[in-house]
Amino acid sequence: MQRHDFPFRRRDILSTLAGAPLALLAAGTLRAHAQGTAASSLTYGQSTGVVTLDPAHGSYTLYPGGYEAGLCIYDGLLTFAPSMKVIPQLAQSWSMAADLRACTLKLRPGAHFHDGTPVDVAAVKFNIERLMDKQRNPTNRPLWDPVAGVDTPDATTVVIHLSQPFPQLPNSLAHASGALVSPAAVAKFGEAGIAKNPVGAGPYRVASFDPGQQLVLEAFDAYWGGKPKTARLTLKAITEPSTRVSALRTDAVQIIDSVPVALVAQLKQDSGVKIIAVPGLRPIGFVINLARPQLADVRVRRALNLAVPVETIASKVFFGYARAPDSPLAFNTEGYAPVSKLVYDPAKAKALLAEAGFGPAKPLELAMFFSQGLFPGDVSVGEVVANSLTQVGVKVAITKIEAGSYWDAMRQDRANLKWDIAMFGFNPANASGLYHLASLFQSNADDAARPDVWNLGRYRNPEVDRLLAAAGTEADRAQAAADLAKAQALIWNDAPYIWLQINENVTAVRKNVTGVEVWPSLFTNVRHAAV
Amino acid sequence: MSATVARSARPARRRGVFLLLGAALLAMFLFVALFGGAIAPYDPNAQDLLVLLDPPSATHWFGTDEIGRDIAARVIVGTRITLTIALTSVALAGVAGVALGLVAGYVHGAIDRVIMLCLDLLMTVPSLVLAIAVVAAIGANAVGLVTAITISFVPPLARLVRARVLELCDLDYVEAARAVGMRPKRILLRHILPNAESVIVIELSLMAGEAVLVGSALGFLGLGVQPPAPEWGAMLGASRQFLEVAPHVAVVPGLAVSLLVLAFNLFGDGLRDWLDPTATT
Amino acid sequence: MLRLLAWRLLLIPPTVLGVVTILFLIFKAVPGDEATMVAGATATQAEIDVVRHQLGLDRPLLVQYASHVAGLLHGDLGYSSTFRGNPLPHILERAPATLLLTVSAIALTVLIGIPGGILAASFQHRWPDLAVSGGVVALLAVPNFWLGMMLIALLSVRLGWLPSLGLTGPASLLMPTLALAARLIALVARLMRGMVIEERHKDYVRTAYAKGLTVGRIMYRHVLRNALIPIVTVVGLQTGYLLGGSVVVERLFDWPGVGDLLLTAVGLRDYTLVQGITVLFVIGFLLINLVVEALYRLINPRLR
Predict the structure, then answer these.
(1) Which of A143, A159, A72 is nearest to A107 (CA)?
(2) Which of A9, A118, C240, C257 gets the highest tally of CB atoms within 10 A of its CB?
(3) One pLDDT digit (tens) per residue for chain C, 304 residues
(4) Which residues contact A109 (CB under 8 A, 6 or more apart)?
């Protein structure tokens, strides 16, 4: 009896029309995100994505994801062992000249790039000259500025000439930016093209690259060190820590980095997972703006340090996965020498502040900057430090800055600095203590302008400058180490920072995964990973 | 088209209950906002790193957060922040929205079209997205937050007021007043505004609830006021990474938000039942 | 009707242009130098100037605006510092995930909201009605991200039933959808309840009662036929909420959609990306409203 007005028919049509695309959409989207778990393939869930893969031209981004990808795709003349000791890679051996102004390397024969071209001395010369060139390689300049020229006297020898004594050249060559790129690829893709089309001589070549999301690598059969055990390596960006952890637990990924320390205890109880924690190279702290008159007094700075319970922060806020420093350098940095332990004494802090003229009547006022998501626990630690300072009578105004604009706020001309103390941590990826101290504490050429490297607080100590220069050119390495130790002591006691914790780098892997190296320099190296 | 229940479906006695309940809850929140500092069991910024992320206990009724601060104290003191931001935004949006709506509705013509065009453009951007964009531009602080929320509320309010004004302008006595040559300002203030008041007040009450939701969402996303302010949304945002190990940190601030929004909703709905029982907006 | 729809479709580009203009002005007024942020922290002044020239930031404002709009017509959203280039492909790549979430939310609203409203109306003033009405009031007060967190805490952490975060398979869709749809479910249920109650007072129902006939089937045919109306109405009125709410839900559940990308862009001060995604949301909003308008005229014969 129901003729025209068929309400259900119209509804049915509409709902089916809606339903079909929904089903297709769901299937398609879910499939696109499904994990491929073929045999002999591993997925590494990274805390940051990989966007560019050129050792020069802005270097690998993002940090550390891009560097970790570079470690799989590229080989350099030298590299680091997990202990941060420099070891051979594409060069079989090396030796520095006595005057530290040249380095001779013996190239390993028989290595090839992914595109089949040989890794010969011409390729090495091409790469070194590319890295030397400020136009083509504007980043990591302190590592490459001293390089003056390259010679190739014979088919297996390369001699690198330096414009000044530079004992850290091996560290530069071992650094990720010292990776060798195929000259043929540069010719083919252009200088700017390598970032998205990397061709190196490492154990993995690029199968597909979706910048910021996923990088799929496949084993390079002709790798000089032997074909890698894992046929397919996927580097996937999972920025949210909890998501990374849950992806590991469900075996959606087999390796993750930057495990949130609050979750480590729980993760340890999971029998399918093992934790790898390695002390890091990056001491965190609050850099003090020494251009401010009230902060120029060393008593004030010492007071600020006495007011902060760093040990407690390390053991409580980071659940034990951090340590309090006793030097401006991390414990396993090359050239580290202990100076003295940090003391927590709020009473003494108040006394020192009073001595310097600050007290309840005239409190010290500080503008504190910190980021969100740039440094481990930055917001929590920032709030703890602010509170600790408040307890000794300092008035702290907090400004939390998004990660994207933090560096801009930090690296300003002296007149434009809006912070009195700002959180900062430096990671010397070449593991050199000299590099670390020079980057942060060597006097700027002009304090009024932007800092040369990372001397954000405008620290200036001529004796430290002298010691750093000496350590850099001294042929006697023992003497150089002594110079470095003295510099550390001077800096430590000058207190240009509120020294905070050194975090451990915590990576987690599935129990059956081997070969994952966690470097103190924050990188998780998966080039040898296998099930 | 209405989004509410048919009036006839609600028994008369229930109408008063909502209003009273809403008013009572709001009064409670107002009290806490004003005297929170005195009520709170601890200093909201006092940290005890030895008991961080502790579940509720005798010493800390709602537990502690990720740096050992008492959650109950923070939620109590945070009431003032949330309420201030919400009420300020609503007040500002009210002033701007009513002004624009009055002008657009009464004057009509080109000005009306221009105003409505701008407002309609703004309304095509989802309000939270618009708020995020504004905060991205101005900065994450109290001013940015209030500006963002205000901007996203002005268009719908202006529209509402304009519609009401148009309705009222149709009425005989208003037309008569215009014909007689009574000054526009007088007409607006004596005839139009008083008759639009109930609509405006109801809408503002409901918007206040909305403002709390938007404000706490922005706080959750990290786009709210600066630390260490105990803003409820920011507390929820910070608690997210600890859901696996300490879910209790997320419970109470969220309940607080829900209760406050509920209070505004009840009050607004109750107000509508009382002032404008035949309305269908 | 087709003429109306075509006209509305034609209005989309100028509307988008208007929004683009507003956003352009807002972001140009922002303090902070875009060139510096793109060039990076370690750049020298010379390098920053090079970047400024590359991005065309040294041209007069009007020229920048004109070239920006011209670029948009080709699908070039500008230079995004996150992706080092035109972010459009990356945005479009993430769009399906957001689409999946919003469409699922609407689907869930139909599945739960309609029966819920009918249930409440059928047992008016008795406990099912009180439960549903209470639920409605609660869901309208609860922030969706908090609801999501409570769902995670219960279903994922405590009970281990569902994966907590990310897009990892069909099971991972449930919680984000629930959190997003909650408000819509409440509104639809409330509207549906009202409609059914209203229907009950209609003449044909009274007549049938008087005659002693069972009204169930007839009434419910009328009701279900009109069931689409509340859905379409609510979706139409709440489009802004649906799209805006998806941003927060995506961030909470680490859902790889466009909203999550928007927040990343804000964090990185990548205004090009922020603008691009906002424009996408606006287009989405206008298209949904168009569909709603069309559906409304389709199902509501009185408006034909």
Answers:
(1) A159
(2) C257
(3) 678 788 888 888 888 898 888 888 888 877 667 777 666 655 667 777 877 887 778 888 888 888 888 888 888 888 887 777 888 988 998 999 999 999 999 999 989 998 898 888 888 888 989 999 999 999 999 999 999 999 988 888 777 777 767 777 788 899 999 999 999 999 999 988 888 888 777 777 777 777 766 656 666 677 677 777 777 888 888 888 999 999 999 999 888 899 989 998 888 778 888 889 999 999 999 998 888 888 877 776 665 4
(4) A156
| Exposure letters B33-64 (e unless 16+ CB within 10 A, then b) | beebeeebebebbebbbebbbbeeeeebebbb
Using CA atoms, how far apart are residues C256 and C258, in angstroms rounded to an integer?
Answer: 7
| Rg (alpha carbons) of chain C, rounded to whole number | 24
d(Cα C117, Cα B218) in Å, to the nearest integer?
32
Q: Which two tokens stand for residue C76?
A: 């070039």
Three-class SS of residue A119?
Answer: coil
CA distance C183 to C186: 5
To which H or E segment does residue A45 belong? strand A41-46
Query: Does the beta carbon of B228 lie under 8 angstroms from any beta carbon of chain A?
Result: yes
Torsion C142-C146-C151-C153 (CA) sign: negative
Whether the Cβ atoms of residue C231 and residue C114 lie closer than 8 Å to each other: yes
C-alpha distance from A400 to closest chain B C-alpha (Å): 6
pTM: 0.83
Q: Is C256 helix (H, G, I), strand (E, B) or coil?
A: coil
Phi and psi, residue B99, nearest 5°: -55, -50
CA distances from C194 to A175, B3, B13, C187, C261 (A): 70, 9, 18, 11, 39
Interface-testing mutation among B43, B47, B51, with chain A (most A C-beta atoms within 10 A): B47
Contact B4 C194 (CB under 8 A): yes
Does C164 contact B at CB distance below 8 Å?
A: yes
CB-CB neighbors (< 8 A) of B219 in chain A:
none
Beta bridge partners, A151, equal A159
CA dist list (Å): A290 to A295, A417, B36: 6, 11, 39
Q: Which residue has the tokens 């509920």?
A: B262
Q: How far apart are CA A321 and CA A338, in angstroms?
A: 20
What does R_g of chain A's alpha carbons equal in angstroms? 26
Q: How far is B266 from chain C (nearest CA, A)?
A: 9
